[in-house]
Design brief:
Helices cover about 70% and strands about 0% of the residues. The chain has about 280 residues and is an all-alpha fold. The longest helix has 30 residues, at about 115-140.
Length: about 280
């Protein structure tokens, strides 16, 4: 059991609470549009995704993060929820880049009314939300969050190495999918045109940002809020891969993808279990 260091109390500010409320709402709606209605994106989503597995992949990330926003609102302490703002900021910045690069594909002028509303909502959210998240982070750090980095429950050595490997791998893959989709899409286990590749890359980079921030915090209590969503994401991705298994290419790419998800699920659950035991 580690000796305790007094933690600085930094309650979340209204701007941060608003960020989490918007995140919870948007993640819930996008999860339904993409994970449940994976084959109906032409009618209900911001752009038509030709491969339902891509829609389900994106929806899994959105849905998996919804409970974390709920817990963050209930927790109310900035140091223990800061990682969610960091990861969401990364997501929105890179999703905005992908959106603006392929704006002509969105249902901004054509399509069903629901699709056009979704397209305009998507554009407004991903152009505007990054600024709200930046304001939230800056204000919270100035309100005392910048002093709340003392380590109470240090990460185990192998857990730090695990997250470092994740951070490096996800950064390379995410940047590749975002800015060199013609090259990196060839290693993906199903077809990814440029816009879907950019959207997938944005989520992978958000995953990378969270992994880098885990190493920055170095404290289990300040990153554990993200773990349930992390595990849910892996499980939902495996379920999506099974649901749309006919869209996966045959060969090592698919086995590597499924094996990576299963490995992330097992190793993250093991890390959480050992860190919780270490705390006790």
């Amino acid at each position: 059991m580690q000796p305790r260091v007094q933690e600085t109390s930094v309650p979340i500010l209204p701007v941060t609470r608003l960020s989490f409320l918007l995140g919870m709402l948007l993640a819930t709606v996008a999860g339904i549009q993409l994970y449940v209605l994976s084959t109906r994106t032409a009618d209900f989503f911001a752009w038509t995704i030709g491969v339902p597995l891509t829609a389900a992949f994106l929806g899994a990330f959105f849905w998996a993060n919804t409970p974390s926003f709920v817990v963050a609102l209930r927790d109310g302490e900035w140091p223990r929820v800061r990682i969610l703002i960091v990861a969401t900021l990364s997501l929105t910045v890179f999703m905005a880049i992908a959106t603006l690069r392929h704006l002509d594909i969105f249902h901004l002028k054509e399509g069903e009314l629901t699709a056009r509303l979704a397209a305009w909502a998507w554009l407004i959210v991903y152009v505007g939300l990054p600024w709200l998240l930046i304001a939230s982070f800056v204000q919270q750090e100035r309100a005392g969050g910048g002093l709340a980095y003392s380590v109470r429950d240090p990460l185990l050595g192998w857990v730090r190495v695990y997250f470092l490997l994740q951070a490096v791998g996800a950064t390379i893959l995410g940047l590749g999918l975002s800015f060199a989709p013609g090259v990196f899409a060839d290693i993906w286990p199903w077809a990814l045109p440029p816009l879907p590749a950019g959207a997938v890359g944005a989520w992978v980079l958000a995953f990378a940002a969270a992994s880098w921030w885990v190493l920055r915090e170095g404290d289990w209590q300040r990153i554990r809020i993200a773990i349930p969503g992390y595990l849910a994401m892996c499980a939902l991705q495996l379920l999506a891969a099974f649901r749309f298994r006919n869209e996966l290419v045959d060969g090592p790419r698919t086995w590597a993808y499924v094996g990576t998800l299963a490995g992330l699920l097992v190793f993250t659950a093991t890390a959480a279990w050992q860190q919780e035991r270490h705390r006790g």
